[in-house]
Amino acid sequence: MKKIFDVLNVVKQKLFVKKDKIHSEKYYRRIDFLNKYSLLFHAIIAMAIVFIVEIISRRSFISACKFVDAHTLAFMYNSFLVFVSFSLVYLFRRRAFARVIITGFWTILGIINGCVLSNRVTPFGYTDLKCIPELLAMNNTSYFTAQQATIVVFGLGAFALFLVALFIKGPKYTGKIRYAGVSVAFLALLFVAIPVTTNVAQNTNVVASYYSNIAQGYDDYGFVYSFSSTVVDRGMKKPEDYNKQNVEDVEQKVNSQKQTTTVDGKTGPNIICVLLESFCDPDEINFLQVNEDPIPTFHELEKNYSSGYLTVPVVGAGTANTEFEMLTGLSMQYFGTGEYPYKTILKQTDCESIASDLSKIGYATHVVHNNGGNFYSRTNAFSQMGFDTFTSKELMNITEYTPNGSWPTDDILVSETMKTFDATPDQSDFTYIITVGTHGDYPKEPVIENPTYTVSGVEDEGMKNAWTYYVNQLNEADRFIKELTDELSKRDEDTIVVMFGDHLPTMGLQNSDMKSGDIYKTKYITWNNMGLPKEDADLYAYQLLAQTTDTVGIHEGTIMNYHQTQMNSTDEASYQDGLDLLQYDILYGKRYCYNGVDLYPASDLVMGIDKVDITNVSDSSTGDTVYIYGHNFTNWSKVYINNSKVATTYLSAGVLAINKEDISDGDEITVCQVGSSDTIFRKSENAYTYVDPAVEHDSESETDEPTENQ
């Protein structure tokens, strides 16, 4: 032990104890030379950083070289941005320390991007930082592992120690610092040079101001610029022609063409919308062959009911953005690069959606999703969009998981969907279902013993295993589709179902790999028991539910009516301009289309359909455990004693257990369904007062049953 302390003391003396040292004249001449030509060295370092970041992001030295060769001006512009960041060092005496901080900042961002791209197609953007709490809560997925987390923590810790040592023992600038002049120069660079050069670069197509394909945009224009644009380019830009008169003109045009709704919340059909996570028809992939059709139900529905290609705003990841387009009818193309509206604008404002539109005519509206309610801030988003209920995994009795153990199986969604119908027998229902069974990551090692579906056309063994896993999970999704439509067929209720893939799987697919020629195209299919004609159409995600409601005589809502009346216009530019105006008006403007009134306020969202209650509490025979009996408990049920959570063991949907030492005579017991960050989604309908059998009570209370406080 003494040797260990001796070693630690030596390290402390070497790294963290400042000692005055007399340097040679040559050393000081070298320092003077570096200070004199520091701008030149900053330029060289900036280019080196950009090149290294591109190597890390692309995970290929050759690919980084190709970027420099094919997009030299974009590379130089990225270097200029890093160069500007280095101007901060002139505000400090510890300039070496500041340079290391700036270098580390850009390098760490590049490493994060490389890690993100190893698990998905969409690169790392600023809005991803808002998803970190949710990702950390997903500890049963392969987005990160304990080993990766350990490496990250160790690496950051080592870098922090190095910075401390450099701060203490590193060189300091001894000349005079003209803070006023340096500050003015830096501000001039920041607020004049960058906007001017950015505008010139965009106008000359060196870089782009909008990415229709964010992954391709990062490839073409570099990580530093692309990531920076996700920081500064958020929200929507105000359309140049935005004013009350122009919005009213669009509304007048819509109103002159829109039809009258012919149903209401009692006579209208049930509408089910199903997001099929990462769903792709294997027949659409040019190189892939499967021994037999893994999705026969999907193909049968595609053949007999309305279907088509669906253009979505993301690929490989970003489910929430396809979801946003589909539910609201609004387009992601008008937002900044890499934005998630769920994490930005919907945090502060309500938003008209299909749910709020249908609620106006008496529909009950629900969401069913076998993943966490807080992921993508969905609980907040669904409230802002006007939904009545949201059944997340915390409200489900989930017992089965996918073969890689990462995700619940989707079969539970069928029964949970039927619960939404049964909960509102006197209303028509809109139920939005989100599946997870085909979600990545797709293991490159075999995890399914004797898989029913096998693939060919893939040379790499790891990717072959991944595709094998994926197509077998597609079959599970297909079984879910069949089970859902079979169950609906048994009900004597008019129903229409629309199902769609939210994006292609994270498999590195390119446009040339797809029969559609576009990795932003998935498929949608429908089913109905109403005898509706088959009318195929290729749509954008933001048009899907406008098209669906149009077929059943529902013509409600500002945006849905806009699409129903204008999306088949021959003037595509005019159609998009009108959508841009209305979208800005609703989310960021003065809501002229609502006459300035908040027509679609956020709802008081109820989590789950089933009520949770406590029926009894008793001690175990050994006296060290207390059992709580009740209804509709799940793995996410937690016992609260006097409003404080205690360690809880889930035994079944009717029994929970806690340690006897956590409760005392007379304490109040409640059971809560708890999400990530200890969010309480739902409380038990009643509280229960605990009576300890080991405590003597007066004769009257001994004959009474334990009391329940309603």
Short description:
With 710 residues, the chain is α/β, with parallel strands linked by helices. α5 (72-86) packs antiparallel against α9 (179-203) and α19 crosses α20 (558-566).
Label the overall shape: globular
Helix/strand/pairing class, anyone?
A: alpha/beta
List low-pLDDT spans: 138-143, 701-710
Roughly how much helix do the residues carry, as a percent range? 40-55%
Strand order of the largest sheet: 10-3-9-8-1-6-4-5-11
The major beta sheet can be summarized as: 9 strands, mixed
Cα radius of gyration in angstroms: 30 Å
H/I helix tally: 22
Can you count the beta strands?
A: 21
Mean pLDDT: 88
| Amount of beta strand | 5-15%
What's the end-to-end separation, in Å?
Answer: 61 Å
Using brief descriptors, characterize the structure shown.
710 residues, 21 strands
